[in-house]
Amino acid sequence: MIDFQRTNPSQNDFIDLVRELDADLKIRDGDDHSFYDQFNKIQNLKYCLVAYEHKVAVGCGAIKPFDAQTMEVKRMFVLPDYRGKGIAAKVLKELEIWAKELDFSACVLETGVKQPEAIALYKKCGYQITDSYGQYMGIDNSICFNKNL
């Protein structure tokens, strides 16, 4: 069973999971990592989520306001040993529930072309590829998604 804790960016389990995420992205993104990294500072987040399986922190995600109606999904990650169990989809669903509770009606997100697992997850969860937004406009390695809640 997966339990969730809504938290903030100073929570230790969230910090540890994001550290693992950043190490993975540094390898996947290669030379592009510093560009993406500047947009992923956790101190800019307010709504953070940690997923626990048997009290072990196994995954995380966050949302932040993008505009008056839309939240941006950030920092999605599941530890490698826990992948393939549907945890990421559960984290994403919990973030969507939280966004609706906060009166937002849509979510957007960006992921990289070198993250096929993430792309498959977002498509499976009903996200549609959309035009790149903000800092990701014109970036060939970015794929942006949106979903109405």
TrEMBL record:
Residue intervals of the N-acetyltransferase domain: 2-149
The keyword Manganese is assigned to this record: no
PROSITE patterns assigned to the protein according to its UniProt record, in alphabetical order: GNAT (PS51186)
One Pfam family per UniProt: Acetyltransf_1
MF term (GO), any: N-acetyltransferase activity
Protein name as catalogued: Acetyltransferase (GNAT) family protein
Gene3D superfamilies for this protein: 3.40.630.30
Keywords: Transferase
InterPro entries: Acyl_CoA_acyltransferase, GNAT_dom, NAT_camello-type
